[in-house]
Amino acid sequence: MRVFDASSAIYAWDNYPLFQFPGLWTWIAYEMSSRHMVIPETVVEEVKHKTPECAQWMSDIGISVIPVDSRILRVALQIKGVLGIVGDQYHPKGVDENDLLVISTAKVLGYCVISDESKQHWKKEERLPLRAKFKIPAVCSLPECNVVCMSFVELIKQSGVVFG
After folding, report:
1. What is the pTM of this model?
2. Is there a contact between 128 and 90 (Cβ–Cβ < 8 Å)?
3. What digits encode the pLDDT tens for the residues 47-58?
4. Alpha-carbon distance 16 to 7, whole Å?
């Protein structure tokens, strides 16, 4: 089971056009309609703002939208505290509120996150940056979060599905 981030939805839409990869999109539609893939309501709004055609496609297929509830908000606040983010002072290079809701949705549901935000790599001799600068993959890997995170391409490879 997977929770889609806006970065992956937009990445997939931009790089695997529906008319050229109909089998892929049929599979995604099936995965979403059967709730094997879900999207938090905040992601739907973000996708609608950035790629309206993709949001319309999601609406047409009847995706599983997860509303933000008190459990998800509570976990998001815990993660926000772990990152040292105070109030709305998100670091421009790190996660934002929607990202925390994606991660906390996955944590609450016991799902993994599909995100195409860049992975951050640090050399052992370097001091780690402020946690507030962490992107989704780095936040997911924190012991306090412990959420699996993979990219859209990793999802396709892991699925083993052959699109013909």
Report:
1. 0.88
2. no
3. 999 999 999 999
4. 14
Residue 78 CB-half CA count within 13 A: 17
Helix (H, G, I), strand (E, B) or coil at 37: strand
- Using CA atoms, how far residue 33 sits from 27, 91, 112, 154, in Å, is 10, 35, 17, 21
| Domains of the chain by residue range | 2-66+152-159, 70-111+124-147
Q: What is the pLDDT of residue 116?
A: 92
* Residue 151 exposure: Cα atoms within 13 Å on the Cβ side: 10
Q: Which residue has the tokens 């938090």?
A: 40
Indicate the residue type of 56: Q
Q: Which of 127, 128, 120, 123 is CA-nearest to residue 149?
A: 120
